[in-house]
Write a structure and sequence with these properties.
Number of strands: 7
Strand content: 15-25%
Keywords: Membrane, Transmembrane, Transmembrane helix
Strand order of the largest sheet: 1-7-6-3-4
Order of helices and strands: HEEEHEEEEH
Largest sheet: 5 strands, mixed
Number of helices: 3
Distance between the termini: 186 Å
GO cellular component, one term: membrane
Helix content: 10-25%
Length: 248
């Protein structure tokens, strides 16, 4: 009786042990080369593809490789979904702090020598998908900061994951503001010169308007350019030359 109870305790202990977490891949996602146009925008950023990072035997060709996008302060509370239907979507981002996007397979990230073809991942590049759709690569909602990592999922749950990237901040629209600091002597001189020129221009314009007004009021035009004046010529009888009367 005592032996059986001991065996039962051991079996129950084995079942109660926490399941091992996903395998850790020592790869840190990186932003693409700084020379790439559009590397950072106000709603997207571009990553290098994780080529050759998913060759472990526990990962199969049918496993899904997701990109996890998280707020910079939400990485500690990230929990990998155990089922596909639990995959967080961009609509969950404001409250949950992370979502999964850019689903791929390891066949799309082969190792070997890099080719001349540009191989990058642009995060936040899909303006047409619904943020409630699984895997939607919706534009990022603000400047960040953001951190990302790759997560390998199978039908049994999470299988492997990379390290978190460093923080990425997006571009922000710059607002033209007056400088709060003291102005230099050169700036003051330029402002003074521009003010004098503006005053001279306004005075010349006002003088021209006054001259035009006086010139218009002091003259009375007889006809306009489209009017023709005809004067009929005739002779009155008392201005006619008298005819010769009588004869010699």
């Amino acid at each position: 009786g005592g032996l059986r109870r001991g065996q039962l305790v051991i079996v129950l202990s084995l079942f109660s042990l926490p399941q091992p977490g996903p395998e850790r891949i020592s790869y840190v996602p990186q932003l693409s080369s700084a020379t790439l146009a559009g590397r950072l925008t106000q709603s997207t950023f571009t990553l290098e593809q994780p080529r050759g990072q998913f060759s472990h035997p526990s990962i199969s060709d049918s496993d899904a490789i997701w990109l996890v996008v998280a707020h910079g302060n939400a990485t500690q509370k990230f929990t990998a979904p155990q089922k596909v239907e639990d995959t967080p979507v961009p609509a969950d981002f404001p409250q949950g702090g992370y979502y999964l996007t850019l689903r791929a397979s390891r066949a799309l990230y082969p190792g070997g020598q890099p080719s001349n073809q540009l191989r990058v991942l642009r995060v936040g590049n899909d303006t047409h998908c619904s943020p409630r759709t699984t895997g939607c690569n919706h534009p990022l909602p603000g400047p960040g900061p953001y951190r990302v990592k790759f997560l390998v999922m199978s039908d049994r749950g999470p299988m492997a994951e990379t390290e978190w990237s460093s923080e990425t901040r997006l571009q922000q629209a710059e607002m033209l503001q007056a400088s709060p600091g003291p102005q230099t002597a050169g700036t003051v001189v330029i402002i003074a010169i521009l003010s004098v020129l503006l005053a001279i221009l306004l005075a010349a314009l006002l003088t021209l308007l006054i001259f035009t007004w006086y010139d218009t009021c002091g003259s009375t035009p007889i006809s306009g350019p489209g009017e023709l004046v005809f004067v009929r010529k005739y002779d009155t009888h008392h201005m006619s030359r008298p005819s010769a009367v009588g004869g010699t």
